[in-house]
Amino acid sequence: AGRRPFPVVCAADADAKETTKPKVPEKAPAAGSSFNQLLGIKGAKQEDNIWKIRLQLTKPVTWPPLVWGVLCGAAASGNFHWTAEDVAKSIVCMLMSGPCLTGYTQTINDWYDRDIDAINEPYRPIPSGAISENEVITQIWVLLLAGLGLGALLDVWVSHNKTCFGILRG
């Protein structure tokens, strides 16, 4: 028979008694900066400050595309003018879409991935215990309600006859 280009190990050849578990890193590499940690970038330095950990869960690095979406949408509408009111509406919309609702989805994603992260990335805030489960649940609700509240404010502010929340109520 021809020679194989790679070694082949059959199950019978392996020692059944010898089992090795892959080594799981106990903490993130310390090479990353605190700034990377705040942005939610993988491999960042660990933080102890609860507010920095909360910010990390919202992954600010994911916000810029949404801010650009608000700016481009406002510009494309033809209704945006550089008045204080239009700028304020845009800023409220950016807060709603970035920190509140994207932060909500990023935090809830980390919450549901906590068991997987406990194996693959045990240094992340939730599986490492850097933030308690109650604090995470509170953050999820606060971000969701803040985002919905800002959405309702914008709905009323732009004078919709029947607001989105009014439609949902029936």
From TrEMBL:
InterPro entries per UniProt: Prenyltransferase_related, UbiA_prenyltransferase, UbiA_sf
Entry keyword Transmembrane: yes
Membrane recorded as keyword: yes
Chief site of localization: membrane
A GO CC annotation given for this chain: membrane
Annotated membrane topology: Multi-pass membrane protein
Transmembrane segment boundaries: 140-158
Keywords assigned by UniProt, alphabetized: Membrane, Transmembrane, Transmembrane helix
Localisation: Membrane
Gene Ontology molecular functions: transferase activity, transferring alkyl or aryl (other than methyl) groups
Name of the protein in question: Chlorophyll synthase
Source species: Aegilops tauschii subsp. strangulata
